[in-house]
Amino acid sequence: MDRTTNLLITVLLAVFLVGLGTAGYMVIEDWTIMDSLYMTVITLSTIGYGEVNPVSQPGRIFTLFLIVMGVGFFLYVIGNVVQFLVEGRIRLILGRHKLDKQISHLSNHYIVCGYGRMGRALCRYLIQKGLKFVVIDKNEDRIPVMNTDHVLYISGEATNEENLVKAGIRRASNLITALGSDSDNVFLVLLAKGLNPNIYVVARASQNASKKPLDTAGADVVVSPFDIGARRMAHAILRPGVIRFLEHAFADEDTDIHIEEIPVAKSSKLVNVTLRESNIRQDYNLIILSIIQKDGEMQFNPSAGTTIGADQRVIAVGSSDSLRRLEVALNPH
Fold first, then answer.
1. What pTM value is reported for the model?
2. What fold, for 256-330?
3. DSSP codes joined into one string, 262-321
4. Among the CATH numbers 1.10.10.10, 1.10.287.70, 3.40.309.10, 3.30.70.120, which is that of 3-101?
5. What is the tens place of the pLDDT at every residue in 288-324?
């Protein structure tokens, strides 16, 4: 039975008992409505201020009946309150246990620190891509939002080592710091790299002065939303066609043109095959924009004679279906 139904039943019972008692005294004792109502209320509440008028034998029997009904009613109310508190606590404990169990089974996942506007928007994109992630956020007001969004989360400070360990940082592949304070982001990067030196960290910088400390702390990529926004506005004026193309390429819900970065596994049949021989352009209807070498060097617009190597990463543009087929070819599981 839900809360609304319980509340409705409680109100109806209270109205019924008060009405029954008032009507009973009016009929049995021939009292006025105010005297009957007063006697009913003090009887049901077991206050016992005394009888307003002398009570006859039938009236006393009716009063005993009313007292029993009143005690039963209050026991019902107390039972509902206790049930609500206990069930709520049990539900909270079981829900937390389920979340912790799911988090403990994750590996090669993402950890998103902060579920504000930026963090939530980022998580939506990760969900679209089918990626596994855990959120760490200290704001308890955001717990209902995270529950509604069906994300795995840990409520607490992201700069707390225990919370990072609970989030599986030693098994995670990426960490994204989207905290509101740059000093917290710097400390978080240092702590994360200390717990997992191989984790790939993307850090948010609210101020330009924070970029160097974040880079020094070990962040692999430092992103300034304000700088990106300013450059985006400038390019919208200077290169509107380019911006329109990039928006189409990254707006998943509006178009079927996408840009993806695909790692090349050693088991791929395309390893040590040139782009011309791979027939990627003909078989997958894709354009190879760049190939990233093992050392991070980026080769833009590779020629047809360029050889695909293991542990490289290929950046391609095309439809989502074609990109998925290329990913299977380059990185078979």
1. 0.58
2. Alpha-Beta Plaits (3.30.70)
3. EEPPTT-TTTTEEHHHHTHHHHH--EEEEEE-TTS-EEES--TTPEE-TT-EEEEEE-HH
4. 1.10.287.70
5. 989 998 888 888 889 889 999 999 999 998 888 888 8
